[in-house]
Design a protein that fits this description.
Layout: H1 2-21, H2 40-43, E1 47-54, H3 59-64, H4 70-82, E2 86-94, E3 101-106, E4 109-114, E5 120-126, E6 129-136, E7 147-151, E8 154-157, E9 167-173
Parallel strand pairs: 1-9
Antiparallel strand pairs: 1-2, 2-5, 2-7, 3-4, 3-6, 6-9, 7-8
């Protein structure tokens, strides 16, 4: 019981740390060859979000309707069984009403989503805490593409992205 309480406290503290660590701004990676920035990923601030964990015994069912190929599903399921990976559900939606298409990248997996006001649930394989990147695919225009995700604590509007932007998220599976 004490171990469970300590684990919950640790995870809650990590969530508060990640939620408060950034100023929720998207950053644009530096152009190749820029001397000021050796690595765009190292300088990018990431927004922390907590997503619902899919139980390992429900992984095959969740992957069946996820849109991954059979080989990708088999690879992901093997990672879940080895406990190297966890599956999370990430409902993503159009937060600004301007539409747009984004690419969601989690490790080696990549999903393309046309944003709608009704959330589209993506099944993502991550480690306990993993990085997920969102990139605009369609031309965001002057207004940009505004997306949001539904976290463990409710809807969270993400920063608006413009051409060339990438939005980095640190996902905690709970």
């Amino acid at each position: 019981m004490l171990v469970a309480l300590a684990t919950c406290t640790l995870l809650a503290g990590a969530g508060v740390h990640f939620m408060g660590s950034g100023n929720n701004t998207s950053t644009t990676p530096a152009a190749a060859g820029s001397g000021d920035n050796q690595s765009a990923d190292a300088s990018q601030q990431r927004t922390g979000i907590q997503l619902s964990l899919i139980a390992p015994d429900k992984a095959a069912e969740a992957l069946a309707s996820s849109g991954y190929s059979e080989k990708e599903q088999a690879d992901i399921l093997a990672g879940v069984k080895r406990r190297d990976l966890r599956l999370v559900a990430m409902p993503i939606f159009d937060a600004t009403g301007t539409g747009g298409t984004v690419s969601v990248i989690s490790g080696t997996m990549h999903r393309t989503v046309a944003l709608q006001t009704n959330p589209t649930v993506l099944i993502l394989p991550i480690t306990v805490a993993g990085n997920v990147d969102i990139l605009p695919v369609s031309d965001p225009g002057i207004v940009g593409i505004g997306s949001g995700v539904i976290t463990m604590f409710g809807p969270q509007v993400l920063p608006v992205m413009h051409q060339g932007d990438s939005l980095g998220l640190t996902v905690i599976a709970q």
